[in-house]
Amino acid sequence: MQYQGVLKKMVTENLDTVQYYLDMKSDFLNINQLIGKQIEMSFVTYECLNCHLEKQIYRQGFCKSCFFETPNAGDWIMRPELSKAHLGIEDRDLAYEQKVQLQPHIVYLANSSNVKVGVTRKQQVPTRWIDQGAHEAIEIVEVPNRYLAGITEVALKEHVADKTNWRKMLKNDIEDESLVSWQEKLRAFIPDEVQEYFIENNKETTINFPVEKYPEKPKSLNIVKEESYTGKLVGVKGQYLIFDDNTVFNVRANEGLVVKISLV
Ligand SMILES: [Zn+2]
User: Fold this and answer.
1) How far is the CA of 155 from the centre of ligand 1 (A)?
2) How far is the CA of 214 from the centre of ligand 1 (A)?
3) Is the pLDDT confidence value at 258 over 90?
4) How far is the CA of 10 from the centre of ligand 1 (A)?
5) Which residues, at least 6 apart from 232, have a Cβ–Cβ distance to it below 8 Å?
6) Ligand 1 centre from 62 Cα, in Å?
7) Ligand 1 mean position to 93 CA, how many Å?
8) Distance, CA 42 to ligand 1 centroid (Å)?
9) pLDDT (tens digit per residue) in 106-145
10) Which of 18, 87, 88, 103 sits at a 20 to 30 Å CA gap from 260?
11) Neighbours of 75 (CB within 10 A)
12) Domain boundaries, the chain
């Protein structure tokens, strides 16, 4: 069996164990079913997720010109505190920004390698947590727009991490934390205008990833450089495919690459 398509982050479903799917144009691959199997993956070419041209990918699955022009790659995506649609101010396309920014957002705590704070649209819960490889997470506040979520994150970053250590996350070098206590502890640092949106009596969501064997020393696969790789898939965590020989492949970081995947 052989599949070819442009990589987009895996679609997930939070069942007892997370289910992962890769959309390969003609087929929708359930990656969980490939665990334990030998897979060959090779690089074919690039395809920008926005203009669909065969142009080298710059960032986030976009070619350079799309990255600097398309409304869904504005600075407010990575830095929600820069959101301005609630003021009626345009960045690249106000209608698009209003649609995305003016909807319920969640500020959350997720524990992947350590407890970290993050922001997501409400409809992206728990997808966002799965993508980060968090084994537990909790919502802190639910606010009506992205800006309020952004300023809350900025305030809380002073008191809790905002990054994941991907090696620790993949090695499963993790500790259980009481996120309910963390939420209470951080409450005082939430900006005044967001206090009314605090979520009371909340509990953690736990996430189980389909991993048979964690890598001891994860090494990241650069498929463009290597051109082709063959290995036995032993699990998936976050957006990473984990192979038997410590190789890991971040699907999300490789969006926009056209690859061929075959079972060997
Ligand atoms: Zn493009």
Assistant:
1) 35
2) 36
3) yes
4) 21
5) 36, 37, 38, 39, 243, 244, 245
6) 5
7) 17
8) 22
9) 999 999 999 999 999 999 999 999 999 999 999 999 999 9
10) 18
11) 12
12) 1-6+37-73+209-264, 75-206
Q: How far is the CA of 58 from the centre of ligand 1 (A)?
A: 9
Q: Hey, which residues does 28 pair with through a beta bridge?
A: 23
128 phi and psi, to 5 degrees? -60, -40
Residue whose token pair is 């699907």: 251
Burial of 116 (0-12, 13-18, 19+ CB in 10 A): buried
Using the mean position of ligand 1's atoms as its centre, give its distance from the Cα of residue 149 in Å: 29
pLDDT computed for residue 1 by the predictor: 82
As residues whose CB is below 5 A from the ion ligand 1, the structure lists 48, 50-51, 63, 66
pLDDT in tens, 183-196: 999 999 999 999 99
DSSP H helix total and E strand total for the chain:
8, 16
Q: What is the whole-number distance in angstroms between the Cα of residue 60 and the centre of ligand 1? A: 11
Does residue 79 surpass a pLDDT of 90?
yes
Structure tokens at 163: 């990054």
Give dist(CA 86, CA 122) in Å, integer: 17
